[in-house]
Amino acid sequence: GNSVTQMEGPVTLSEEAFLTINCTYTATGYPSLFWYVQYPGEGLQLLLKATKADDKGSNKGFEATYRKETTSFHLEKGSVQVSDSAVYFCALLNNDMRFGAGTRLTVKP
Amino acid sequence: GAGVSQSPRYKVAKRGQDVALRCDPISGHVSLFWYQQALGQGPEFLTYFQNEAQLDKSGLPSDRFFAERPEGSVSTLKIQRTQQEDSAVYLCASSRRDRVYGYTFGSGTRLTVV
Prior knowledge:
Chain A is mostly beta strands. Chain A has no helices and twelve strands.
């Protein structure tokens, strides 16, 4: 079946630190991959996406590359800000959208 | 509308009470999805509509859960005889027919069963 595994949190970083949140997936066929972000009390917002192997999604300084050979879609940001504090979800779209359990990121000033 | 609108934002129900949660998707989005998000977890799929047709309801946890979208726009998720384990945030999302652009989520309804 289709599933997503992402690194467990919580992750706590200082402002301007480098961020990596790991995500791996299991799927049949050629899924699309997404990162969503959820701020407190809000729904999920699409952060970035990639629809085929070797695509790189990017937005607001965040990046993730669709790696078919390692079935991964790790999220990275070179310099995090306090405003990046949120829960991040990796997701896979095949027949339907499947989400990882989420990784809570806290950035301290 | 400009976004996916869900109401109410918060609902407290006594155990055994019936509740109805509303979702108003983005205009023109043919696909509509309901998810359940337990505290500290990722969203879990409940059901999917394409226009008015409910194409997949495999995620509904019991026959107390029922969803409809009679005119292919607004959808209602109904939970009968609520139980404490139904407490969660219920998220609605909509998308174009070509779902590779991702889903647009509403802010959710937080249901607390006491």
